[in-house]
Each structure stands twice: as structure tokens, then as C-alpha cells.
């Protein structure tokens, strides 16, 4: 008897963007949880070239370093890939541009945008966020004790916004805390892992906070 063709599974891609200045173990925990809970084929780590909402606050560390630290963090991790397209693109890093490019590149793929609650709460300030919501499904993790919830502005426009809630024990680490600890000369290993701690020391990053 002829074998029946199995229906093709849709490719499931996670989009995990960040300033990653620097990447830390909270990011890695989130990427692992998203990969495993959502059954993603791949998590694309997308360091932002110009994270426009953060640019006024302080000078961003050079892309070459942020990218290198992400590469060290995901080395040997199954289903994770460094995607440098936002570093190579001129102008502000808009997630909608990245989602459009990935949708063109992988027709039929399911795109899941992995973000923390801090970003979900501000989603209405993102460039063309309604277009973005037409391209991706949101996968959100609670952060800093805040429940996963879209802002009133987003809910007014999209009342039944589908959100995948990621279950993850809180990881009380942020890049801000890492930079502050680095400027005090503390051991960063518990926050960023041994390889990234070594990289930061070797390149004398974050000596001034
Ligand atoms: N500890 C954490 N737990 C859950 N999500 C996190 C954590 N740290 C970062 N994220 C999420 O990862 C994404 C990228 O974060 P980002 O690179 O801005 O790091 P950050 O620690 O928030 O940086 P900063 O302290 O400089 O604002 C965001 O969606 C953010 O919500
Ligand atoms: O598209 C936008 O307008 C937009 C506005 C703010 C943040 N983002 C993206 O959200 C991700 C997390 O941002 P951040 O500032 O927490 O590092 C990162 O990929 C940013 O490019 C995107």
C-alpha cells in the first residue's frame, strides 16, 4: 500500500529581539522557555542595531561586542540562532520591518514574538504595531512582578488580542543591573555566565556606568 503523505508542519520561528547590552541569563532562560513551551523550530536572537526608544538614555555598546556576547551565550544551545539583520540595517530598528522580512523569507511560517511584560506594556508606542500584530503572535513573560497584560491602548484596538503566556520562574536580572555591577568591579558570572563575564573583563566593557 502506498504511504500516505504526512501533512507538512508549519515552521515555527521565535523572534527574540533586544538591546542585549549585555545579554544575561534572564535572556537565556526566556529563550529556552519559549523554545520548549511553544515547540519552536528555532529562536532567532536579533540584537537591535538602533534600539530607538533607548538611544536617548545612554551610548549603546558597539554592535560587535553585543553580537559577540550573544554568540557566546547561545553556543551549543539547541534551536537558537544569532540573526544580525537588525545590526546590518540602517536606521532605527523597527520590529515590524524584521517581521515583514522574515514573513517573506519563510512563507507560511508561524512567527512568535518573544517579549517581556515591560515591552508588552509599551507595544502601542512601537512603529506600525497594528501591522506587526498582523504578522506575529505574541509570546510574553511576566517581569518584575508585573502580570502579563496588554495596555489599554492596544486592547482598545484589538480587544481579543491572543497572547501566549510563558511560564517562567522570575529571573531578577537586567542589563542595567549587570552594567552597574560591572562598574563596581563585581563578579558577573552569576548574572551573565562565565563566558560573557570573561568577555566583558577582557574588553573592559561597562567600567563606567
Ligand atoms: N530577567 C528577565 N526576565 C524576563 N524577560 C526579560 C528579562 N530580561 C530581559 N527580558 C526581556 O528580553 C527582551 C530584551 O531585553 P533587553 O535587551 O532590553 O534587556 P534588559 O535587561 O531589559 O535591558 P535594560 O536593563 O538595559 O533595559 C525584552 O523583551 C525584555 O522584556
Ligand atoms: O518596533 C519598534 O518600534 C520597537 C520599539 C521598542 C522596542 N522594540 C524591540 O523590542 C525588543 C526589546 O527592546 P529593548 O529596548 O527592551 O531592548 C528589541 O527587539 C527592540 O528592537 C521595537
Characterization of the model:
β2 (42-47), α2 and β3 (80-82) form a beta-alpha-beta unit. This protein has a six-stranded parallel β-sheet with strand order 3-2-1-4-5-6, with helices on both faces. The chain has a single domain (12-170), classed as Rossmann fold. The relative contact order is 0.18. By secondary structure, the protein is α/β, with parallel strands linked by helices. The protein contains ten helices and six strands. The structure holds adenosine-5'-triphosphate and nicotinate mononucleotide.
What characteristics describe this protein?
single chain; 209 residues; alpha/beta; Rossmann fold; 15% strand; globular; binds adenosine-5'-triphosphate; binds nicotinate mononucleotide; Probable nicotinate-nucleotide adenylyltransferase; nucleotidyltransferase; nucleotide-binding; pyridine nucleotide biosynthesis; transferase
Oligomer: single chain
> What is the H/E string?
EHEHEHHEHHEHEHHH
Q: Portion of residues in helices?
A: 25-40%
Domain unit count: 1
Bound molecules: adenosine-5'-triphosphate, nicotinate mononucleotide
Structural class: alpha/beta
- Could you give the order of strands across the largest sheet? 3-2-1-4-5-6
Largest sheet: 6 strands, parallel
- What share of residues are in beta strands? 15-25%
CATH architecture: 3-Layer(aba) Sandwich
CATH topology: Rossmann fold
Terminal CA distance: 69 Å
Instruction: Give me the Rg, rounded.
Output: 18 Å
- General shape: globular
GO molecular function, one term: nicotinate-nucleotide adenylyltransferase activity
Catalytic activity: nicotinate beta-D-ribonucleotide + ATP + H(+) = deamido-NAD(+) + diphosphate
Enzyme class: transferase
Function: Catalyzes the reversible adenylation of nicotinate mononucleotide (NaMN) to nicotinic acid adenine dinucleotide (NaAD).
Amino acid at each position: 500500500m502506498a504511504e500516505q503523505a504526512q501533512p507538512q508542519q508549519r515552521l515555527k520561528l521565535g523572534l527574540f529581539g533586544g538591546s542585549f547590552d549585555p545579554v544575561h541569563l534572564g535572556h537565556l532562560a526566556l529563550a529556552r522557555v519559549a523554545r520548549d513551551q511553544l515547540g519552536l523550530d528555532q529562536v532567532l536572537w536579533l540584537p537591535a542595531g538602533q534600539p530607538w526608544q533607548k538611544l536617548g538614555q545612554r551610548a549603546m555598546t558597539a554592535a560587535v561586542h553585543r553580537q559577540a556576547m550573544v554568540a557566546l551565550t547561545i553556543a551549543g544551545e539547541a534551536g537558537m540562532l544569532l540573526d544580525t539583520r537588525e545590526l546590518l540595517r540602517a536606521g532605527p530598528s523597527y520590529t515590524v520591518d524584521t517581521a515583514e522580512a522574515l514573513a517573506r523569507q519563510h512563507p507560511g511560517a508561524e512567527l512568535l514574538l518573544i517579549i517581556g511584560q515591560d515591552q508588552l506594556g509599551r507595544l502601542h508606542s512601537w512603529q506600525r504595531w497594528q501591522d506587526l500584530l498582523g504578522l506575529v503572535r505574541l509570546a510574553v513573560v511576566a517581569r518584575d512582578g508585573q502580570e502579563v497584560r496588554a495596555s489599554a491602548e492596544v486592547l482598545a484596538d484589538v480587544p481579543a488580542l491572543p497572547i501566549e503566556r510563558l511560564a517562567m520562574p522570575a529571573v531578577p536580572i537586567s542589563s542595567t543591573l549587570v552594567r552597574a555591577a560591572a562598574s563596581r568591579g563585581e563578579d558577573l558570572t552569576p548574572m551573565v555566565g562565565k563566558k560573557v563575564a570573561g568577555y566583558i573583563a577582557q574588553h573592559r566593557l561597562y567600567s563606567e556606568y
